[in-house]
Amino acid sequence: xxxxxxxxxxxxxxxxxxxxxxxxxxxxxxxxxxxxxxxxxxxxxxxxxxxxxxxxxxxxxxxxxxxxxxxxxxxxxxxxxxxxxxxxxxxxxxxxxxxxxxxxxxxxxxxxxxxxxxxxxxxxxxxxxxxxxxxxxxxxxxxxxxxxxxxxxxxxxxxxxxxxxxxxxxxxxxxxxxxxxxxxxxxxxxxxxxxxxxxxxxxxxxxxxxxxxxxxxxxxxxxxxxxxxxxxxxxxxxxxxxxxxxxxxxxxxxxxxxxxxxxxxxxxxxxxxxxxxxxxxxxxxxxxxxxxxxxxxxxxxxxxxxxxxxxx
Length: 312
Prior knowledge:
The chain is of the alpha/beta class. The protein contains twelve helices and eleven strands.
């Protein structure tokens, strides 16, 4: 049986407590399932951001059913033991509504601005995998002893102990990362590849159906029969004519209006009126397995009419 759809809002334009509570309450009222916050301390490329863990605790006090997540924390910015403590506390304060999203870290400019070593991708990814093993143990209520290349723990437990382990969400784009996510995560956010220079790939080929299908298959193969939720962040383009909306997307991305046909087939692009977008999402759940979509808060109101078409 297909997974039910879930929808989230990424709070990219939140700059104050009032912005935060207003966005959280509005997302909840519109029927969104989750509010997520990014994890950056430089303004580019998403604008200034509140610290996600503290901000989500504040958002929890302003909402009743909305789930709260990170999209996604950079593993290198926090030791996994400290992160487990923060995650367990936030899960407790929110009544079990927290979802812990984490990735390997990718933005070289941010590392350098903070004086953090931007290690080769293999090293950063290796640290993430060890961190996920520690987090699963601690947040699962286990006494955790671990000895790896990067981290060590000796008989640790976490307080407050979660009644249920918070879901782990991993953003992944490369083959190795997709495999790690499939083995350890409950939700995998399918992304373009992070490049060695500290940027994200914008190759059109990475967004075409065959590439996305391969990534989804890598996750499922690594999961070994576990039921893993597949997620994607999307920026929908609305309009009565899907092809014209697709042409606008192609021009905005610098691909040229002639790429409109490719955009129509991209699993990460949704264009046209709400009814057409809902049909696309149903078809892509059947084909690829995606059931959890997140939109930026700038698109929250415009996208909201799609939600009852798929959840009602």
